[in-house]
Please model this.
Amino acid sequence: MARDSGHTGRTVLATALTVATTLIAVAVAGPCAAAAGGPPTAGAARVTAGVLTDPTPEEQEHLREVAGAIWTPELAAGWNMNADVADVLSTATGEILKCSEAFALVPRPPGFLPGIGYLVGYWKNLRDYFLVVKDNRTYRACVVTAAANYRSAVEIASMGI
Model:
């Protein structure tokens, strides 16, 4: 028995909603999630003399994976994944999650902005989520809009300007 495309679309949508809800729940849980085996929070606390330090090489690769899922891997490969890029990526990620939730009608706590600790701790989940929603007509609007709105900002941050 062949599946109709509506069923496949519902499956993709259900998967995207599950991942989005999980990502948001973990972000809201904050330090409690870290205590329960969540992502390390050390990345979020790396501040020296009031200035955020650049991500480690491993964190940079994780950030590059997330950026590649929003824009393209080829674009992300050329960017310097510094603290400013992580900041822009954090804002773009927050906008995509906020937009996706609006489509899904899932309530979201106010003021959530995923920081570098969240990005590097959940990079694989975020990358996979963005890749799934990028192919879904409804949610694709969220990723494409964030990619367009933050492209210049991420390029400028990558140049250190």
Summary: The two ends are 57 Å apart (CA to CA).
